[in-house]
Amino acid sequence: METWPLGVFASIDAGLGVRLEVAHALGVKTIHLHTPQQESRTEGQAREFLAQLQDSGMTITCVFGGFEGESYADIPTVKKTVGLVPAATRNARLAEMKEIADFARRLAVNVVGLHIGFVPHDRDDADYRAIVALAQDLCAHAIAQDQAIHLETGQEPADILLQFLDDVDRGNLFINFDPANMILYGVGEPIEALEKLGSRVRSVHCKDATWSDAPGVSWGTEVPLGEGAVGMETYLRTLQKIGYSGPLTIEREIPQEPARQKTEIAAALDLLQSLKTKIET
């Protein structure tokens, strides 16, 4: 397989990521797919999606879970609404995440990603232990059908995330590394975090951001790839250093501006291709 094939975060009907036809027009061969709405996650729809992908020459390398009621309005709202952590929705979302993994299996995808949410930092906290058990439950469901679970970076510093993975202690639990999220959430320098997480990183997003004036309290700002604080050449060289050779999946979160989104992703593809050429020669 090609080292660092270029891809995009895409969507069929959920409103996040670019549409499949846009991904095809951009010429990418791999995508991370935001899970379709529940009514679309059927055996028949899976066959239809696979036919579309085959026609366009694209491969799904990860299906990303998402849930109704999640909001990224601000950091406190993320804590209350995102992922499997919020207590009020925890059991229902765990059940849905298993169903999403089943749908990914119908698509012949062996990686399922998600934001698990803000994990408590105190290992003695009863809620922390409950979330560890929940993650073990999800991993058991996935491993039974030869799937891995990838937790996306963002809500935790690298040391906390590593401790959580060690406490869950399952061989199919890894990390989807998003460098911009480290900046947006104000939880740590992305390159330093990537070096710490090392071989646990099994998929990545390519996204850029600038720091907030109050990191961890208010949002940083997502910006076009190459215009933020990540440092994309350093990012790719660090991926090379830790032995990551999988897809570079561009995520640009402005679905409400599709024309601008497509233009900026096209520029990001050009940037990544030029950096790949520079680093590989």
Feature tags:
281 residues, alpha/beta, TIM Barrel, eight-stranded parallel β-barrel, two-stranded antiparallel sheet, 10 helices, 11 strands
Q: Please state the CA-atom Rg, rounded to the nearest Å.
A: 18 Å
Specify the number of helices.
Answer: 10
**What is the averaged pLDDT score?**
95
Identify the CATH class.
Alpha Beta
- Contiguous low-pLDDT stretches (5 residues minimum) are none
**Tally of extended strands?**
11
Q: Major sheet, described briefly?
A: 8 strands, parallel, barrel
The ordered H/E elements are EEHEHEHHEHEHEHHEEEHEH
Structural class: alpha/beta
Helix content: 40-55%
How much β-strand is present in the residues?
A: 15-25%
The appropriate CATH architecture is: Alpha-Beta Barrel
Euclidean distance between termini CA atoms: 18 Å
- The CATH homologous superfamily is termed Divalent-metal-dependent TIM barrel enzymes
CATH topology: TIM Barrel
Shape: globular
The spatial strand order of the largest sheet comes to 1-3-4-5-6-7-8-11
- The count of domains is 1
Summarize the model shown:
This protein is α/β, with parallel strands linked by helices and 281 residues long. It is built from ten helices and eleven strands. It has one domain (6-280): Divalent-metal-dependent TIM barrel enzymes (TIM Barrel).
